[in-house]
Amino acid sequence: MEHPNYGTSKSTEEHLVDDTFINPLPRTVLRSNTPILLDGEWRFALDPDDKGLLESWHVGHTYTSTAHWPGSIEDHIIAAREPSGNAAWQDKVVAWYEREFPLPAMLHRDGVHSMLQLTFGACGYETRVWLNGIQLSTIEGEQVHLGEYTSFSYELDESILKPINRLTVRICDTMDADQPRGKQESHIFKRGGIWYQTYTGAVRSVWIEQVERNRLRVVSIVEDKLVRFNLTTRIHDPGFYTIRLKVFNRKQDGTEPIATSDFPIRLENGQKRQRVVVEVPDAQLWSPADPHLYRLVAQLIDAQGYTAEIETYFGLRKIESRGSFIYLNNEPVYLDGILYQPGTATYEQIKLHIHAMKKLGCNLIRIHIAGVDPRIYNLADKLGILLWVEVPSPHQSTVISRQNHREELLRMLALIENHPSVVIWSLYNEDWGAEDIASNPETRKYVTDTFHYMHIEHPQFLVVDNDGWNHISHEGRLRSDLLTVHLYNPDLSMWCEKLDRMIEGELEDVTGFPLVIGDPFFFRKQVPLVVSEWGGFGFAHYGGPRAAEERAKKIKAYKAELRKRPLMGDIYTQATNIEDEVNGLIDAETGELTVPEGLLSSGSKEE
Questions:
Q1: How many Å apart are CA 262 and CA 398, to the nearest integer?
Q2: Model confidence at 130, in pLDDT bands (50, 70, 90)?
């Protein structure tokens, strides 16, 4: 899978740009070309009877409303039904968007080396796109793109381009519980409590840019002082090429690379994956204390010497679970974490939140089953913050939901596997989308197979099978790199009692469900223990204190108890308030802390 955030032309890291510059595109790199942003006012129409396809609205339709892209369908419904708009939809929503754009100027109008590409930062859940009435297919060959959390692209055939072009988009979403949706409501879970209003449709920017006809993307994986680069080439002109990789320190004196290597290769039409390895001399590791980054220049050179180039960056780091410890770069690390649900926060607000979480003393952020603006990963790489990411969950366990879950996982991996800050993945959370995990061998087999796939194809991550409880044991071996537990109780003494029982190896009645299922599992400190959710003080169901001063006092007491015990991490719930969950420590609008700085830090405690 080629992800449009990588590999189509020369790029510049966001954090190398002046701090006053704001990246207008929701992607992880900045390219030296000039993208044309198609955000702004679009013509808009709801299609409540879903007749637009039958009536060929993509050929011509009279729109009576407008909507701002990006923006959610929910907001656009309100605007279209003024003055008594209601964003709620209970089964299915279909909306159409349309606008014109002029033909962009290109550096190579002969089409020999360049083409135009249309990219959606995120849109969905089901998206169809037409250009001048002709339906487009994504780079992967999809006429209907499924998914709403990651970007997708279309290469534009010059034969259908005109001086003025009409772009038409049909978006459809449903409350289908088989669909990955995280904590948005569905037919199974309705809005209220921890379940949020849907937020779907045209939720991120859309843009056009010039890209190379023959190009590559690159993903780096660290193996000691060797860096394994997984390259994906996309070729329209088959022939002999040279892949040239140049490695630089992110900030260095002089222009000579610290490592370079050529790889001659014959490439056929289409996409091809190729692994190559480069040795980095005197390698400097990436860590929260020293987030050292390297710059990579990857070139694809054809037989005539024409070069397509991309710049990206990578960090050298290794994360491992060995015995009862988590090791980062062969040193034990304790995860001082916090749960983060950005919801509808803008990227500028997300930046404020992340800086505030660092002030709290966190070295890890657990991004809770949500699709987020991908620029968050670059920011974490730069600041030295570890990230724990999760696949947005479906809401029921079926063959279809598991297939959708896997496809969402693969889309996310294509987007963020390159970032040193991303260290942990959760496949599921609290059985959401895998409710029969304790009773259905097929569900356990899917989770186990996916765990093994991640270990083989993406060994740079730790993987949690089902966070919180009901971890899978097969033949007495845990199919999770961490034994995690969600432990909520407003009574400190009762909470500590359960904590101690878990540490002693008890797996029943520690949390809401058995901690391990499947074959018998005997805990003998052979896997790290992490309390991956605790606190929630302020959320009504957990009965915690609402006043900020009292909440801070209670958090400090709970944190002290955690650090007295042989754990390897804890995740406080949560960073900011969102809908009914008013247990945040950071003002969602301003990024200001409502509790003292350093509250979640372990300080200088020795492991």
A1: 47
A2: very high
